[in-house]
Every structure is written in structure tokens, then in C-alpha cells.
# Entry
Amino acid sequence: AANNDITFCDITKYSETDRNQGRNTPGDVDGNGLITVVDAVKLQSWLLGRDTPGIVGPNMDLNADGFVNVFDMIKLRQKLIN
# Structure
């Protein structure tokens, strides 16, 4: 988690603040606190112009260049492999 900048919290001390902090994780497209294949599917769907409900837009710009494009998809796939 530390190597991939993924935020975790103690479930017994879980709060709204923790939840919002966890939603700001590049690659966590659906904002559930995990980076999974589902995030890659949602990003790909969005890139293809399909209606993609339940996404956290800022988390899709993995390379922080201000654009969401194929380079973000490549970076997300690299995160999943590692």
C-alpha cells in the first residue's frame, strides 16, 4: 500500500474524513479505496466514451498531466501488475 500511495485506515476508527481521504487515490477510479481490475474497466469504458457511472474523475489522471487518456490507462495497468 505504501509503495502505491494507497490510503488505509483502521476499520474500528473509520470516519467520513478517512473515507474522503481514501477517495483521493490516483487509480481508484470508482472511489472504493481499492485499485482493482474494476477500476481499469471503468477507465477504459470512460476512454471509449461510454456512460460510466460511479467514477471519481480526479483519480483517473494517474500521471497528473491534467488530461485523462491512454497514458493513464497504461499507468493503471502497471499499478495492477505491480
User: Anything to note?
Assistant: The radius of gyration is 13 Å. Residues 40 and 48 are 12 Å apart (CA to CA). The mean pLDDT is 85.
